[in-house]
Amino acid sequence: xxxxxxxxxxxxxxxxxxxTLNCSYEVTNFRSLLxxxxxxxxxxxxxxxxxxxxxxxxxRLSSILDKKELSSILNITATQTGDSAIYLCAVDGSSNTGKxxxxxxxxxxxxx
Amino acid sequence: DGGITQSPKYLFRKEGQxxxxxxxxxxxxxxxxxxxxxxxxxxxxxxxxQIVNDFQKGDIAEGYSVSREKKESFPLTVTSAxxxxxxxxxxxxxxxxxxxxxxxGDGTRLSIL
Lengths: 112, 113
Known about the structure:
The structure holds 2 protein chains of 2 kinds.
Chain A: E1 3-7, E2 10-14, E3 19-26, E4 32-38, E5 43-49, E6 56-58, E7 61-66, E8 71-76, E9 85-92, E10 100-102, E11 106-111
Parallel strand pairs in A: 2-11
Antiparallel strand pairs in A: 1-3, 3-8, 4-5, 4-9, 6-7, 7-8, 9-10, 9-11
Chain B: E1 4-7, E2 10-13, E3 19-25, E4 31-37, E5 43-51, E6 54-57, E7 64-66, E8 76-78, E9 87-94, E10 103-104, E11 108-112
Parallel strand pairs in B: 2-11
Antiparallel strand pairs in B: 1-3, 3-8, 4-5, 4-9, 5-6, 7-8, 9-10, 9-11
């Protein structure tokens, strides 16, 4: 059975800290891995990773995929209170249906 | 502005009642998806549709039904057969041919009266 596991499930840090969120997966036909940020409502897209070892970066956020280890990490440097959210990892293991398998999410709280 | 609109934001269901959640998109996306989110469980796929007049069951389709009569619209009906409907429901869409990521609406929170 295809599955995606995120760790930790929750995390509390202080502003300015650096955090690393983990995502591991077991899927039959890997196509891509996606990271989303969910505050109160709609998850918003952060990154889509398809190739191993290539870092994707957007401001203070970065992510990298390791296909050998079947995992990905999401790094957030110099955290701010606005980074407080649920971070969702999802894997597309379909044959072009776009069906995503989501992990449980990591709830990040950044304290001032 | 282009986007995905879900309505209503909050919905209450009485015992034995069917309710319909609306999802409309003006992004010209061909594929649309419905997810259910429960606390601590991430998102689970209910139904998805890749083209008009065609849809497939996801992992937790029992007690739900959908239709796809127009490209822009993918309504979800929560039937009385769904015994535990209290959850946050999210609709998503994507441009299938361009292999783009899914983008989400703001969700509907459904509760039992």
